[in-house]
Design brief:
18 strands; P-loop_NTPase; ABC_transporter-like_CS; 3 domains; Rossmann fold; single chain; five-stranded parallel β-sheet; six-stranded mixed β-sheet
């Protein structure tokens, strides 16, 4: 056991005046299984890069461990998997690696296949197993779930629970609950470390916000009451001062000593009221700095002319003559939100592309309603680059509505001026979702829309879908999201 200490950390990118971190201090134990959470763009991956020594910064990071990073950059994916493993963990024995991948339900034969022939999920599992075999290294795990199916997420979560000594960036609530024992959260105003799972952290966070909201309401009332009392005290004081040179109704002169005493008493009361008011204002200013506001999103799905939109009968997709999935049949009617379930490589994305009209080889019958308007969120974001204004023009989007949606999804205005290639993975995905929300469609097809997207935005999208009931066919492996949104599941 040792500590990683962060002292007065301040960092901003050279191209930005806004600091990512400003005078931040905290410490973490290297034995912890630490979940690292926060909204997109708050600096989670940046912090990893600071630990890895990639950027210069002000302050101190004190650690007695060597850091390693997942995903490991594989330069030549055409090499055999065992060659890549030997490069990552040269001191590990073969039997040790085979033991590790067996925990992750990966067959030993993958060792003798080119790495590029492994599925994304297999690649994730192999790299994690290899990195954990490096003794004395502290692993920084950056969003491992993005290429894992639902079963794979459960396997990796169980695997990580057996380990100790890592920091894990993830936005999958169930995944975090399955494997972490501490939470490091980047909030709006500070960074906090807390013992427990994601769910226990969230419960404490919500309770804290609820307590602060009630305290804020009480202080607002106190401040208003004290302001009224201060005005009355000031009026009384002024009246007493004005009477110093006056006379009584009977014509006799007032006792100036008495008047002076009364004036001093009024002044003291006014100062006490002002002091109490300033104290209440100061206390109020410390509240609700971390509250995460998520404004409701809007959607305008089109009503289709008939109840049935799509019908698939015994459909099986194939590549180079090899059938990928067993034949499936399902119907999509208005209001359905169909989630396609299945392991990586089972043909889920291919089914979506088939519905979109791509020339995918297949058997069986697909019937689409005539005149069907579809809005699509694709899985890959690597093509996104250039100015936001060009993206808006190329996709013929209503600019005010589009930017309003992005603002509601926690985009700062400064992001609108950046090249899209500089956006975080979550911000790029939000761009595609915002585009889809601007499109009036009969059917919304979303392929893993939540990759990289923060928890608050996931819940925001859940609320949107349940409020407007669009007809959807989607692929998503976030179990909590599926349970809240899907009305029908089709397993490949």
């Amino acid at each position: 056991m040792s500590m990683i200490q962060v002292q007065n950390l301040t960092f901003s990118y050279p191209s930005s005046f806004d600091p990512i971190f400003e005078d931040v201090s905290f410490q973490i134990d290297t034995d912890w299984k630490l979940g690292f959470i926060g909204r997109n763009g708050r600096g989670k991956t940046t912090f990893f890069n600071l630990l890895l020594g990639k950027y210069e910064y002000n302050g101190k990071i004190i650690a007695s461990v060597e850091f390693n990073y997942f995903p490991y950059p594989v330069s030549d994916k055409s090499r055999l998997t065992y060659e890549i493993v030997e490069e990552i963990c040269p001191k590990a024995e073969d039997w040790e690696f085979l033991r590790e991948i067996s925990y992750l339900d990966v067959d030993a034969e993958v060792m003798y296949r080119p790495f590029e022939t492994l599925s994304n999920g297999e690649q994730t599992k192999v790299l994690l197993a290899a990195l954990f075999l490096n003794e004395g290294q502290f692993l920084l795990i950056d969003e491992p779930t993005n290429h894992l199916d639902t079963h794979g997420r459960k396997m990796v979560s169980t695997y990580l629970k057996r380990k100790k000594g890592f920091i894990l960036i993830s936005h999958d609530r169930n995944f975090l609950d399955g494997c972490v024992d501490h939470i490091l959260s980047i909030n709006r105003a500070n960074i906090e470390v807390q013992s427990g799972s994601y769910s226990s952290w969230r419960l404490n966070f919500d309770r804290q916000q609820e307590h602060e909201e009630k305290t804020n309401e009480r202080l607002q009332k106190d401040i208003g009451r004290l302001q009224q009392s201060s005005k009355r005290s000031a009026n009384w004081s002024n009246q007493v001062e004005a009477s110093k040179n006056g006379t009584t109704n009977s014509g006799s002169k007032l006792d100036k000593g008495y008047v002076g005493h009364k004036a001093a008493k009024m002044m003291k009361r006014a100062k006490n009221l002002e002091s109490r008011q300033n104290k209440a204002i100061e206390e109020k200013s410390t509240l609700l700095k971390n509250v995460e506001k998520t404004e409701s999103l809007q959607l305008e799905p089109l009503a289709y002319k008939s109840k049935e939109l799509i019908q698939l009968t015994d459909v099986a997709v194939s590549y180079e003559g090899e059938v990928v999935n067993s034949p499936i049949s399902f119907t999509v009617v208005a209001g359905d939100r169909v989630v396609l379930d299945g392991k990586n490589g089972s043909g889920k994305s291919s089914i979506l592309k088939l519905i979109l009209g791509d020339p995918i080889q297949h058997r069986g019958t697909l019937n689409l309603g005539s005149g069907l308007i579809i809005s699509y969120v694709q899985q890959d974001t690597s093509h996104l680059k250039g100015k936001l204004a060009d993206f808006i023009e190329d996709n013929q989007i209503d600019e005010p509505i589009f930017k309003s949606i992005l603002r509601k999804m926690d985009f700062e205005r400064i992001q609108f001026e950046k090249d899209i290639s500089q956006y975080s993975g979550g911000q790029k995905k939000k761009l595609l979702i915002a585009k889809s929300l601007c499109e009036k469609a009969h059917l919304y097809i979303w392929d893993e829309p939540l990759n990289f997207i923060d928890v608050y935005s996931r819940m925001q999208v859940e609320e949107l879908i349940n409020s407007f009931n669009p007809t959807m066919v989607f692929v998503e492996h976030d179990q909590a999201f599926r349970e809240k949104v899907a009305t029908k599941m089709v397993t490949l």
